[in-house]
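User: I'm designing a mutation panel for Thiolase family protein and want to avoid disrupting the core. Could you give me a predicted structure to guide residue selection? Please restate the sequence first so the numbering is unambiguous.

Assistant: Good idea. Sequence first, for numbering, then the predicted structure tokens:
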Amino acid sequence: MSKALLFSSAKTVDDSGSLQHCLALENQLHQHDIDITELTIDPLSTPWHSEIETNHFRSGCGPIEAIARARELIHSGQSEAVVISGKDLLRSGYERQQRLDLMAVYGNDYPLTEAYNELAEQFIHRHGADAQLFHQLAHHLFENYKCSYRNVVSDELAAEQLPDERWYNHITPLFRGVDCANPLIDFCGRLLIGNERVTQLLKIPASEQLEITGVGLGYTPGDGKQHVEDIVSYEHLEQAYTEACQQAGIDFAAQFRAGDALLETYTCYPVVPIAFLLASGLVDLLEQVPEFLDQHLITITGGMNLAKGPWNNPALNSLIEMHQQLTHSPQHHTGAVHGNGGLGYKQGVAILKKYNG
């Protein structure tokens, strides 16, 4: 069985960055007559409820589903090389009302803010907690994201881009503006994945390669208001995490606690990263979350709140960042990226580790 190796990543965000490195390697593969399977993350402009085309992926879990598909194609020998691409010009490509209309995926009578709040209420009830504890957890989460964000941008830029005071006001009984994803970003990203023959042909150094060792996926029967109770169990998230760890042959939580691993949880609203901490066994109780967050960074980007969330592409951005940070880190050898689809009906976890050659 061929190893699935992530060997190149590139992105542009607003007016910075370049895809040229990835595109040049893709061109080399074409010159060697190696077919590249293309997997595409749908943009916001693709209607949410339309039929999903072959090799297209939709929702915040879409990039994790895509990397699972890429791993399957490489392992089975159906493809030697795969590119995963996503593009969404959320800041400049839509009129404000058009963007809001497209984001109203559950209809105008059930806006995302109301859906998030209802999900949080049921989550709190399920864990015997109250609004005061939830507000405390949301505060600690955002402080954690700020620490990660300052690691990837300059102090000056971080100070400029931190939300102003109005975003700290509550927009629902359980959420402040800063607690939810900020989608206003122009994003374009690419990942190149291949087998060992491809990476040798392109003379990619082992130090630039990550092996996709495990990808777990979990689903509830459906999404939306009528499935909130199914979603807040997060049994499907635990299933996805466990499957990824079993495929990778590791105890990720133990490696993360030991400081040997990087993590990017999906931070569209506080319930989701909290659910990941519980489902992975990183914490056992909600009351343990603040202390854990004081000791461990649970994103490498600043989360979707600060690094921003380009609709279906945040986990693609996270996979790109994981490739770039993990291959340059002497301390960390493993990374996990979490994806959440819709209100949470799709959950995915991808585990990557440094390639030893």
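For picking mutation sites, this is relevant: The mean pLDDT is 95. The first helix runs from residue 20 to 31.
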